[in-house]
Structure formats: structure tokens, C-alpha cells
Amino acid sequence: MFRYRIIYAKVGPARYISHLDLLRVFDRSARRAGLPVAYTQGFNPHPKMTFAAPLSVGTAGEAEYADMELARDIDPAVVKSALAGAMPQGLRLIEVDRTPEAAASLMALVERATYSARAELASPLRDEVLARAIDSFLARPQIIIERQGKAGAKKEYDIRPGIFAMSGCVNNDIIKIKAELKTGSSGNVRFEELLAAFLKESRLPLRGRLSLTRTGLLFRGAEQG
Question: Domain DUF2344: where (predicted)?
């Protein structure tokens, strides 16, 4: 088998595709493009595709990662061209390259993620007021949020250890908030959880909903900016 690592953007209408549906979309697109997708053996074969840390429905992604295995060796440029022409609106291929079949899984490699949120302000806000609110929020020894488990029971988590950086700026009536958070196979911090906790404490004058984007994924061993 031959493994290909795909970097793609998930924007516009595609940001509402769930993580579970994403596999089906890639599988259908690859078959429509005539690519020889490799499948698992057994009674219920499925395509040999894996994705990096899942995105929440409604969050866009500027540089997402997926691994796809093909049954025969094809030039990555040909794979990219064929697959790009079969993708639905909002899924855009950025790069396709070969990767060793024995390479570590994407979920094992991904360690951090960078995010950006944007919203309109209901009233004026100065940059220094926003900066003080962020500093006060990050100064807390614990930031406790609630998550609902698979059994339906809610459980408390401290997300403060997984917040590596957070900043914000104001441009006229637009506020932008950026963060670098723990992600991967354990200790994940969800951007929407961070924002909910921050907005509850800061009571910033927002109008409407925040638009969320994951701007990048950082692999283990990569330099952190």
C-alpha cells in the first residue's frame, strides 16, 4: 500500500461537515476521481484514511491533515489534481505528498493547534481593556469547564494547563481573539470551551456569534512560536 499525506482547507459550507461524515466525503471524492483507495479486510471494509484532531462542527480549518492509502503508487501531483476536481465546495486541497506507511499516526503526532475567533462588537472596546481581560483570565490558577461524557453525566475539567497562548485585538467594531491550545490524543482544550469561559468572566460586549477558525496544527517536536 502507498500512503499519502493531504493538507486541506475546510471552509465555507464544508465547516458544517461533521468529523464522522468527513471520511465518507473523502472516500466518495476519491472514488469519483478514479483513485484506487485501499480498504480494510473483513465483513465491513472501510477506506484506509485517518484524520488529525477533529474539528467541531461549524469551525473552519485553514490547514487540516489527513492520511490516505492507495492500492498502487501514483505521483502525488496526479493525486492532488484528481482529488481536487472531485471535492465538494469548501474542501480545498493545499498539498499532497507521500509519507512512509510505517510513519506515526496523525493523532499521535499532533500536539498543539492555533485558533482565531472573530465577532462584531455591540459597543466600543479598547485594545488595552481587552488585553487586561485576557491577562486576568490567564492569571487564574484553574479554569474549570464542564463536559458531558458518553453516559450523559457531566464532569469538570481544568483546561488552564492546555492554554499555551492567548491574545486579542480590536479593529473598529470587530474583535479578534487568538489562542494556541493543547490538542491530540489527550488533554485537549476545545476553542469554544475556552471562549465560553473567557466571555463569561470578561462580559465583553459582543453582537452575534463568534466565527471560529483553526489556523494550524503543530506536530510533536516542531518549534513552537
Answer: 3-190
